[in-house]
Design brief:
- The termini are far apart.
- Helix 5 packs across helix 7.
- By secondary structure, the chain is of the alpha/beta class.
- The radius of gyration is 24 Å and the shape is elongated.
Length: 212
């Protein structure tokens, strides 16, 4: 199993360098006992309450790229504290990353309270996804009822979005707007058809159309 060793201390005092060295040594021994292959050692000096850390993003990039599938930390507070800790636990859980600690000499054992919070976050996230999908579905239905033909606007679905000016059927925006659909509903409808545009972009392009 490929793994990443992550070490953190809260300040940049020279006395903390000993702690970083000790963490690295203990986690290297942990990796050897579990026969893990360490692909990167990440060390940083930053507050655990701060989520905007170079080391954290370096770690997440490795996991997103599939370079590693486990994380070794001294204890859960080294990853983060407070809301930052919960946010990172949730992200790693979604990515399927196993977390091992020197404290437990094995896989991390979440406290009952942390486990409960993560369950609640997952439930809320799932319902947010359901609400988002329902909005797209309702927008699509209303658009079709208003005379919109989805089959005429599927030609660009296989093209990855870039930095160029986003293309979408402005004539359909005009027609749907004339049928009293809101810009939010129109944007959701276009997203469902493979045109990832925001309500603000739809509104701006609508105004540009009438100015030309």
């Amino acid at each position: 199993m490929n793994t990443i060793i992550y070490c953190r201390v809260s300040t940049d005092k020279s006395t903390q360098e000993t702690s970083l060295k000790r963490q690295k040594e203990e986690l290297t021994e942990l990796a050897e006992r579990h026969h893990f292959t360490v692909i990167d050692y990440i060390e940083e000096q930053a507050s655990g309450y701060e989520i905007d850390r170079d080391g954290v993003f370096q770690m997440l990039d490795h996991f997103a790229s599939g370079n590693a599938d486990s994380l070794l930390i001294q204890d859960e507070t080294r990853l983060g504290r407070g809301n930052t800790k919960i946010a990172l636990f949730h992200q790693l859980q979604k990515m399927g990353i196993s977390i091992y600690t020197a404290l437990h000499d094995g896989e991390l054992e979440l406290s009952e309270s942390d486990s409960m919070v993560l369950q609640i976050v997952s439930i809320v996230e799932e319902y947010q996804r359901k609400i988002h999908n329902a909005k797209i579905k309702r927008g699509m239905k209303r658009a079709v009822d208003s005379g919109f033909d989805p089959s005429k606007n599927l030609t660009n679905r296989d093209k990855a979005p870039g930095k160029d000016r986003k293309q979408f059927p402005i004539e359909e925006v005009i027609r749907l707007r004339e049928n009293n659909m809101t810009f939010e509903e129109i944007a959701q409808t276009l997203k469902g058809l493979g045109h990832p545009v925001s309500k603000a972009t739809v509104h701006r392009r609508y105004q540009e159309y009438y100015k030309t």
